[in-house]
Amino acid sequence: MSKIQTIAERLHNQGFSRRDFLKFCATTASMIALPTSMIPSVAEILEKKPRQSVIWLSFQECTGCTESFTRSHAPTLEGLIFDLISLDYHHTLQATSGEAAELARQKAMADNYGNYLLIVEGAIPIGNPGYSVISGMSNKDMLVEVAEGASRIIATGTCAAYGGLPHAAPNPTGAVSVGELISDKPIVNVPGCPPIPSVITGVIAHFLLFGSLPALDSFKRPLLFYGRTIHDRCFRRAFYEKDLFAESFDDAGAKKGWCLYKLGCKGPFTYNACATTKWNEGVSFPIEAGHGCLGCSQPNFWDGDGFYQALSQYRKGDRKTGLNN
């Protein structure tokens, strides 16, 4: 049997110099907000660690989370799946199909039992097994089967984390989240519709480096990315504090960058990294582009307050107490 290469060995065989490797370690460390003093420790870990086996299941979803994942830039998608992880099964990205694809999944499960990372995209319909099947197997049965041998589970996107749009009233398929079916495995929720690309890869990088999930909040979201509200770091907050609000999307206030709270922005109660990490390699985020936050990383955002209705529970007087109290 051939020796399994470590991540460092694989990079070296691709022509990476020691300097290139340390730059790679610095990028990886920055993804999860580690100080530069930790770069040598990151290098030491990656010098010894083999590529991580990953099985990615897709259920009731729009493939938006995968689309977001493919736009990761630190690391890039190709850098992640060719150098850091072994993506052994993914409906959208795999080359194989049919029986060959299912055999690949089963082999990955057998070869890495107890050690592979399971990533789930999409809600799971339990109202009727026929609502969604893969190779003749219901989503629920496949999830339970694959979860049994997984080391950790990442529920990627709001559908997997909370049930998402399939779970919206009247929930005709009986859609549920990963956590409602699996209770005996460590799970991290990475919500968003879709999540920010670097948030997805950042959680994966944390697991690769430390072999564990990051610190989580009460909704099992990583505090590293979901520890503050969007409003906390929003550039429009200064206008909020001065009672300067846009009354419509095209009025003078909107053109001056005033707060979008009265237009239904859910930033005050939405925990995510949009205002700091942003999208498209840090270019912008919805509020910067002139549209209020929809609260897509919060549970039940689809059945909550209307998208363009101001939050009734967040009044002017609440500002003095702080958003996180």
Describe the overall structure.
It contains 13 helices and nine strands. It has 325 residues and is an alpha/beta fold. It has three domains: 50 residues, no CATH class; 176 residues, 3-Layer(aba) Sandwich (Rossmann fold); 98 residues, Cytochrome-c3 Hydrogenase, Chain A, domain 2, CATH 4.10.480. Strands 2-1-3-7-9 form a five-stranded parallel beta sheet, with helices on both faces. The chain has a two-stranded antiparallel sheet with strand order 4-8. The chain has a two-stranded antiparallel ribbon with strand order 5-6. A hairpin with a 2-residue loop joins strand 5 and strand 6. Helix 2 packs across helix 3. It starts with 6 loop residues before the first helix and ends in a 70-residue tail after the last helix. The C terminus is likely disordered.
CATH architecture of the largest domain: 3-Layer(aba) Sandwich
DSSP strand content? 5-15%
Helix content: 25-40%
Name of the level-1 CATH class of the largest domain: Alpha Beta
Reported by name, the CATH topology of the largest domain is Rossmann fold
In whole angstroms, the N-to-C terminal distance is 57 Å
Radius of gyration: 21 Å
**Weakly predicted, low-confidence segments:** 315-325
Q: Count the DSSP helices.
A: 13
Largest β-sheet summary: 5 strands, parallel
Q: Give, in order, the helices and strands.
A: HHHEHHEHEEEEHEHEEHHHHH
Structural class: alpha/beta
